[in-house]
From TrEMBL:
GO molecular function: L(+)-tartrate dehydratase activity
Organism domain of life: Bacteria
Protein name: L(+)-tartrate dehydratase subunit beta
UniProt-listed Enzyme Commission number(s): 4.2.1.32
Record's keyword terms, sorted: Lyase
Native organism: Escherichia coli
Amino acid sequence: IDTHGNNLIAENKKLFAERRDPIVEEICEHVHYIK
């Protein structure tokens, strides 16, 4: 779970840095909530 979570977080950070969409922010919040 940790490895997949880290990969998802890295991808979300990339998308957030490129687009900065609120949707990506919501996904990051959900990921942190799961962890």
